[in-house]
Amino acid sequence: MHMDLHQISKNPPTRTVMIVEADTALAQRLVAAIMAESVPEQSDAEGKLDQISCCVTASLREFFTTDPASWDVVVTASTIEENSGFEILAYVQGLRPEVPVILTGTPEDASGAVEAIRAGAADFLMLTGHEMITLPVTVQKCLAMQVIRSENDALHAELSQSLSELAIANRELQQMIQRLEVAARTDDLTKLSNRRWLNLMLESKWEEASRNNIPLAFLMIDLDGFKFFNDKYGHQKGDEILRLAARVLEANCRSIDVSARYGGDEFCILMPHAEPDAAIRIAHRVASAFDEAIAAVVASGVPVSMSIGVSHLQINQPLNADELVHFADEAMYQAKSVEDKRVVMSEAARKKAA
Questions:
Q1: Which domains are assigned to the chain?
Q2: Catalytic residue list
């Protein structure tokens, strides 16, 4: 037997209560109870109210032919002919575990009530003649709980999505901060450290070296002939030479050294834990490497080379980091003033107070 009672509602139904009951008279009584006392769930945008409809099947086999997508609540007798309502409970839980199942029975079936709840039934309803009151309340409670679970699931999904988006945003923010930190300490043209970062590192390494008597060297580097080259070939070609010099410095420095663009065509290398001989050796290596690199890109007759001044904490005994730079700068100008003198180690010591 299949009895579709959709026509009872004036508005199109949106909630379907599946009733599995072999007793036709009892099934009609259950339907009447639900439809007489059903309360619309909510209003849509047009003000129409959701309704409850009932669909009755008389056997397990007939219930198994219904569309699981149409189930909102299932009300089944605990015993149907020779079969048990527990089979329907298991069937529903296997296909749509979110759908509440209400088992019904007579007072003689009371022993199965606890078993039904343990098995996952939403409720066990005793048919004592008061089902006109108790059944609608039970159905409405199940529908309300279903809405709450659905809303909770949606909130959890939304929260998970928000947390996922937040994690992505945090990663992007961290990456942006890292990029900004790199940009803040990097010269745009050469990608070496800029003057600001050099000064910070210089002060830090100076404090460490002077406090612990650790070797510290500083190289000041100037590109000889660069102005002539820049005037003749233009700023674009000049920028290429500056980038070339930067690559030479990076390729020939130690990993702990700080190579930086000091300004214009001047570069420098801060060398912590470097003895004087090591600093001189690296200075010559940088100058020679630049000669080889420049020969491959600059036409003959337009020479560009490096003059390098070297200062050292133990040799010059400067009072502060600025003096260490000053001694290297003076040595660099000495190198520029002497033909074929590429690298000069400063031997000047700080002036002692009278």
A1: 2-154 (3.40.50.2300), 195-345 (3.30.70.270)
A2: 265
